[in-house]
Write a structure and sequence with these properties.
There is one protein chain. By secondary structure, the protein is an alpha/beta fold. The protein has a domain at 61-176 and 201-226: Vaccinia Virus protein VP39 (Rossmann fold). Helix content is 28%, strand content 21%. The protein has helices at residues 7-17, 59-67, 76-90, 110-116, 154-164, 201-211, and strands spanning 30-34, 39-42, 49-50, 99-102, 121-124, 139-145, 165-174, 197-198, 214-218, 222-226. The chain is globular. It starts with 6 loop residues before the first helix and ends with a strand.
Length: 228
């Protein structure tokens, strides 16, 4: 960023060049708020709040942040955290369902928890499990835990989700919903610079309505969508 330019100035300039919402492509996203490091824009159609690409970390810096994560399958507290997603999903799965953990991270744990309950789960992660062969088939369920907020191109990833899950299958997401933020400018979740997309219940209602999905929420961070 050049001297004398504010975060808002730079991001407004970006918005003039590339105005589409990165999730629904509506070309009328407006300035939402800014902090010292980044600006945030909100789409009036799908209610996504997003960070423009000019404010994103480099791929290398993003990877360095993820390398600091210490996700350990033996960590009881981490398992309890993931159980918030696993429990409602397991209640909906048929015996022996097969799935994909999308964004499995440096210490895959959710897949092990599901396998322990009889559900074989493949892994995909752009940094840690980049084998795209797993994207060439479909599954009974897809999990995406604490990953959607990192998507620079959420439209592309969401379209991929829809192709990866068979009719009658489940997309199970865990991400902090903006509804619980209160004052977004003071929300801790936005302060992680790898978080660039923030969803609300309205966002998922929009996606479910547009794409013909069943929808349910579990608390303020878990979303379950059934593919028609």
């Amino acid at each position: 960023m050049e001297n004398g330019q504010t975060v808002r100035d730079v991001c407004n300039a970006w918005l003039l060049m590339q105005p589409d919402c990165p999730l629904c492509l509506r070309p009328e996203a407006g300035f939402f708020c800014a902090d010292r490091r980044r600006a945030y824009f909100r789409c009036p159609r799908c209610d996504l709040v997003f960070v423009p690409r000019v404010c994103h970390l480099s791929r290398e810096a993003e990877k360095r942040r993820y390398d600091q994560h210490r996700n350990d399958p033996r960590d009881v507290a981490y398992r309890a955290f993931l159980q918030r997603l696993a429990t409602p999903l397991l209640a909906r799965l048929a015996p022996g369902a097969e799935g994909l953990d999308y964004g499995s991270g440096p210490g895959p744990t959710l897949s092990l928890m599901l396998a322990e309950r009889g559900h074989r789960t493949a892994l995909y992660d752009v940094f840690y499990a980049p084998d795209t062969a797993v994207l060439a088939r479909s599954y009974d369920f897809l999990t995406c835990s604490e990953t959607m907020e990192h998507f620079a191109d959420p439209r592309r990833e969401w379209r991929r989700f829809l192709h990866l899950v068979r009719p009658g299958g489940w997309i199970a997401v865990m991400t902090r919903l903006r509804d619980a933020a209160g004052d977004f400018s003071a929300w801790y979740y936005k302060n992680d610079e790898t978080h660039v997309a923030f969803y609300s219940r309205a966002t998922f209602h929009y996606l479910a309505r547009r794409d013909g999905l069943g929808l349910s929420f579990e608390g303020d961070s878990v979303v379950l969508l059934r593919v028609g």
